[in-house]
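Record Transcriptional regulatory protein QseB, 243 aa.
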Amino acid sequence: MRALVVEDDPGIASGLSLSLRQAGYAVDVCGTLESAWTALCVEPFDAVLLDLGLPDGDGLDLLTRLRRQSDRRPGQSSLPQRDLPVLIMTARDGVSDRIFGLDEGADDYIVKPFDPNELLARLRAMLRRASGRSKPVIEYGDIVVDPATRSVERAGLPVALGGKEFALLLTLLQAKPQVLSKARLESAMYGFGEGLESNAIEVHVHHLRRKLGESLIKTVRGVGYFVPQEPPAAKPADTTGGL
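=>
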């Protein structure tokens, strides 16, 4: 999962980025409205954490621009996802401020200073709503994924996954049955400037298949990877005694 932090205070941005990365998110930081809009137009994100008091304007202007998308510029081939989840984080604590932000299209609103754990919980809830889930965990056949604890079980037994393996699994499960290209998966798992080996996705897919079953992730050659809408039927128990 990839988050864009729009925050001009270097200390806050650094601390928030650290918390998000420790929680398994790929993170990019922008300190102005214009740089944030450019990032949204060229890279796919799963969520935006938006400060309001920015050097070149009010963060609500970015939110309005995102929701309405009425200002495509000459030569611009793409625009951000209109319904991209947005969490406002600001020192404006008035009830009228919160109401206005939510009515302008924000999905949630948290007042500074805040506990990083609360922000992470709100982010998880926001992403859960965006994906149409009500349960805090994701169940797929005998696999159970808990985004809050970053834990995975298969048939009731814990499965140890690396950070990037977990991020890849979560991205594919939340997108199922959509086929995601290698480039899209890389964007979800790695921020700007992060080191990335050319075969990283293939290696992570191989590890997930080995740990969670070969049938979990399907390959569309030359296109990408996907998790089927429905898990494969469980094989019946062998009652023949091996005869």
